[in-house]
Task: inverse folding
């Protein structure tokens, strides 16, 4: 989205008039006040998952005004078509008189003959609480702005006001990154771009907050949570969250300058929520059907991931996402860095903050290395090219089957592996350097000044940090623009970690899911390139009937048919495929299982690197 980059510098020009002229602008003549776009939302229909939205647009020219529901949402890259849940739309002029409304597409209402003022009312159906959609019920209103509010396409530079009508008799309060006012139900944004980037959690919220001392002055970080847990569980969560935020500030070497001096975690942990996390300029949405009592570590992992985005993505901003397009899918070449490195740093933050221990952190890194090493999708796309696949996979929906298991490796995962590899490479090859130094360089070059970056800019920052442009180029050519997997075994050994394939793993047919019946084993998912079934020409929908004469009617039957055999054995497999029975030759192999563990007797230098890798950085 188009960001309000210099928001603090424009406060006197935009926000101050909205705040009733409370701030002086230092000029003899007051700045003219721009008429805001005014919204109101109420929840009379919450029993049926409905909200009623009202929109007031004044002081517009005589031409047509295009009102739209977004097709996309900041932080997501695919299309979501939010207009599908909008109905009972009523549009008039400022006096309530009928106007001409044209519908050039399913997402737009073009208003003609409005006389300079437009009034809109509509009902929104909302029943998914995550980072993309909205949910309204008797327990809360979870609102993602693009999924909730129409916007005037050509009036996005105007300031915005939002009035929230909380249900009468409820204990609901509003948490949001929007600017608050003396009225707890009235909020403001400097422009439509900021408004559309500002989610809201409205419920009987529990609040925990802490103050951080930054180069910008004191700022407040708060957790606003809708949940079913206990106060003690929330207190523990907040203590961990505070530690995580400080560790990440240490990674980047400073705090962001949060507008309105506040950052808010908007958390909804209830059984009717869907698992997600979504970053925004000065807040993040955290949703899960897990509980604080049972899912604490996982919930904190999502919190850590999204808080990295307060630097990377929100301020260290990919140029390919500038401006953010609310009307089309958004493609980026930099998600291996913006999302992938973030996925590495969230685990780093957890271990340094004491949420997980070294053994768990090392286990996670080994799993990450295994996923990348084994992924068949690396044959087709580099991390840069995988990033460009986001509009097809980032919560995107379609009904036709795909071959993603063989052609796609998530830019989250691959990027995290690149971050891991680069961190270990820097630690072992360049004395005193770590991935933290690269993130700090990116923060200085692109975050503090908010200058959007491209792939080459990350390489340039690495060259500057290491003083070795040839190393930076070779690393990017192999692992960012190229499709190679790093030598994780050698890299992990530099920090005293063993990572190797087990030589006693069981035999298997492949990673595809099998559904056993008395007619055999149906292959329920695509087979994976390189697996025995794939190499034998078997795929989804085929039925495995007999392996070397043994009927495959249960998992026990399959295990028995494999007993006594060895890797490399070739056995006949009778299958039924598209109505035809035939025999294929199956070459057995072991299931790839990796051992990942700290080496107790590793060289002192490796142990020292490992200790430094996981040690806390924040002096609190």
Result:
């Amino acid at each position: 989205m188009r960001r309000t980059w210099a928001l603090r510098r424009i406060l006197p020009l935009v926000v101050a008039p909205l705040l009733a002229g409370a701030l002086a602008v230092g000029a003899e003549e007051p700045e003219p006040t721009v008429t805001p776009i005014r919204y109101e939302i109420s929840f009379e229909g919450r029993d049926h998952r409905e909200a009623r939205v009202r929109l007031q647009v004044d002081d517009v020219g005589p031409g047509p005004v295009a009102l739209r529901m977004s097709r996309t949402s900041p932080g997501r890259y695919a299309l979501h078509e939010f207009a599908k849940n909008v109905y009972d739309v009523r549009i008039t002029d400022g006096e309530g008189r009928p106007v001409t409304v044209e519908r050039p597409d399913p997402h737009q209402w073009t208003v003609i003959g409005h006389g300079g003022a437009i009034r809109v009312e509509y009902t929104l159906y909302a029943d998914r609480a995550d980072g993309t959609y909205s949910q309204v019920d008797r327990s809360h209103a979870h609102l993602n702005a693009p999924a909730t509010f129409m916007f005037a396409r050509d009036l996005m530079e105007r300031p915005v006001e939002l009035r929230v009508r909380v249900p009468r008799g409820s204990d609901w309060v509003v948490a949001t990154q929007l600017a608050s006012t003396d009225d707890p139900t009235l909020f403001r944004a400097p422009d439509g771009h900021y408004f559309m980037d500002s989610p809201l959690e409205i419920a009987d919220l529990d609040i925990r907050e802490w103050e951080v001392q930054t180069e910008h002055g004191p700022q407040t970080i708060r957790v606003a949570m809708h949940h079913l847990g206990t106060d003690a569980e929330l207190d523990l969560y907040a203590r961990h969250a505070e530690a995580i935020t400080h560790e990440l500030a240490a990674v980047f070497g400073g705090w962001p300058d949060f507008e309105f001096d506040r950052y808010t975690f908007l958390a909804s942990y209830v059984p009717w929520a869907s698992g997600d996390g979504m970053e925004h300029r000065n807040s993040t949405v955290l949703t899960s059907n897990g509980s604080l009592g049972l899912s604490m570590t996982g919930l904190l992992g999502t919190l850590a991931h999204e808080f990295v985005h307060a630097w990377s993505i929100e301020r260290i901003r990919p140029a390919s996402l500038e401006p953010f397009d609310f009307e089309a899918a958004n493609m980026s070449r930099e998600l291996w860095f913006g999302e992938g490195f973030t996925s590495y740093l969230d685990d780093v933050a957890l271990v340094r903050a004491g949420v997980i221990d070294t053994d768990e952190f090392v286990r996670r890194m080994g799993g990450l290395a295994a996923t990348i090493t084994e992924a068949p999708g690396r044959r087709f796309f580099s991390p840069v090219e995988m990033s460009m696949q986001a509009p097809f996979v980032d919560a995107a929906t379609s009904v036709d089957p795909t071959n993603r298991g063989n052609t796609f490796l998530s830019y989250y995962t691959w990027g995290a592996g690149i971050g891991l590899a680069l961190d270990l490479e820097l630690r072992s090859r360049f004395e005193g350097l770590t991935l933290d130094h690269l993130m700090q360089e990116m923060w200085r070059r692109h975050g503090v000044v908010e200058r959007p970056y491209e792939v080459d800019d990350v390489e340039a920052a690495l060259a500057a940090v290491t003083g070795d442009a040839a190393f930076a180029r070779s690393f990017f050519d192999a692992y960012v623009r190229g499709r190679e997997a790093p030598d994780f075994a050698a890299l992990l050994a530099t920090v005293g970690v063993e990572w190797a394939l087990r030589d006693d793993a069981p035999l298997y047919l492949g990673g595809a899911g099998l559904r056993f019946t008395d007619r055999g084993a149906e292959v329920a998912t695509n087979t994976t390139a390189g697996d025995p079934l794939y190499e034998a020409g078997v795929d989804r929908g085929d039925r495995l009937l007999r392996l070397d004469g043994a009927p495959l009617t249960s998992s026990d039957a399959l295990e028995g048919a494999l007993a006594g055999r060895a890797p490399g054995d070739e056995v006949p497999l009778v299958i039924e495929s598209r109505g035809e029975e035939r025999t294929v030759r199956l070459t057995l192999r072991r299931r790839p299982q990796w051992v990942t563990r700290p080496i107790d007797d590793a060289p002192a230098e490796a142990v020292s690197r490992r200790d430094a890798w996981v040690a806390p950085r924040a002096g609190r």
